[in-house]
Design brief:
Elements: H1 11-21, E1 30-33, H2 38-51, E2 56-61, H3 69-83, E3 86-90, H4 100-119, E4 122-124, H5 129-142, E5 155-156, E6 159-160, H6 168-178, H7 194-209, H8 213-239, E7 245-246, H9 247-252, H10 255-270, H11 281-285, E8 292-297, E9 301-306, E10 309-314
Parallel strand pairs: 1-2, 1-4, 2-3, 4-6
Antiparallel strand pairs: 5-6, 7-10, 8-9, 9-10
Helix pairs in contact: 2-6, 5-7, 5-8, 8-10
Length: 320
């Protein structure tokens, strides 16, 4: 159900709806990714209420990139002491080259996965419906893919997003009602990074065009996810659980279904989503029917045609 950005959500209502969603359950171990911002503070409080303090631990990643980083860490420590939650702090080695945000994201999720694996726990991230809108709009501009418009899922393996049905304003109200303070990251107010430009430029402009713009984006994503289930079933029917397909059979499919089949096989080989492969589907089906041929594709996967049968593998030396 898409949230109404204007609807007030009380403390008990938000917690009750998270409990009803089933992503957090009593006694199930969960590691909360705690930045100290309003959403993660709200999430930690709700997790303690729903799962119990004994089942909850928190992870704070101190990158040391901001002047306020040490104050953020101290705030997280005080919050965890108040809620009776164990806190682990990771301090990744300072980033030097490449994409700063990508490095920070990988470091954060890598640290969370390591902690969660040791505890047999899920990892909970504080993404909200507001984040979902920004993510979809960013992907709309940056990725020519239908799947990019589906947005974030509430569960992605061991990663759960219990607050995805609530807006940033609603998590702030929850914190205020519970007497919980949070830290503000000053970089969120700027436009240095793409997400900031989406938040302060694009979302604001869409809101001026129509007051229901954000709710409409979320509703569209919900419709697309429902339709994606139908498309996934079509691919299931074609493959029948196989990880290979005859090239002749692949060529007989409608081009749209052909792209979906190629993408599914690539995802399976990569062990994760492999963006960009579907756009090369026509090159894949043009591979020779006789002998053996290989075609390197995006996202570290390789298409291999052997005697007219197609399968995918990870590209040698590609990073998992």
């Amino acid at each position: 159900m898409s949230p109404d950005p204007g609807r007030a959500v009380g403390d008990d209502d938000l917690t009750g709806r998270v409990r009803a969603g089933g992503l957090l359950t009593s006694g199930r171990p969960v590691v909360v990714m705690l930045s100290g911002g309003r959403d993660s503070v709200c999430l930690l409080d709700v997790a303690v209420t729903v799962a119990g303090a004994g089942a909850v631990s928190a992870l704070h990643v101190n990158f040391g990139l901001r002047a306020a980083a040490e104050d953020d860490e101290r705030h997280c420590l005080a919050l965890c002491e108040r809620l009776g939650v164990e806190l682990e702090v990771a301090r990744p080695r300072r980033f030097e080259t490449g994409n700063l945000q990508a490095w920070a994201r990988d470091a954060r999720y890598g640290a969370a996965a390591q902690v969660a694996t040791g505890r047999g726990a899920d990892v909970a991230a504080g993404h909200t419906a507001t984040d979902q809108v920004e993510t979809i709009l960013y992907r709309l501009a940056s990725s020519p893919s239908r799947r990019a418009l589906l947005g974030m899922r509430d569960r992605d393996g061991a990663l759960v997003r219990p607050l995805l049905g609530f807006t940033r304003a609603q998590t702030a109200r929850h914190c205020a009602a519970r007497g919980l303070t949070w830290r503000e990251d000053e970089s969120n107010a700027g436009t240095e990074f793409a997400r900031g430009r989406v938040r302060h430029g694009l979302v604001a402009a869409l809101r001026e065009v129509h007051p229901g713009a954000e709710a409409n984006v979320l509703a569209l994503a919900e419709l697309l996810r429902a339709e994606a289930e139908v498309l996934d079933q079509l691919v299931d029917d074609v493959l029948g659980g196989a990880t290979t397909i005859e090239l002749l059979r692949l060529r007989e499919l409608h081009p749209a279904l052909r792209r979906l089949v190629v993408q599914r096989l690539a995802d399976q080989a990569a062990g994760r989503l492999a963006p960009g492969v579907a756009r090369r589907a026509e090159e894949v089906v043009a591979m020779a029917d006789h002998g053996t041929a290989a075609l390197d594709l995006p996202s570290g996967v390789r298409a291999i045609a052997a005697r007219g049968v197609l399968h995918f593998e990870r590209t040698p030396h590609a990073r998992p």
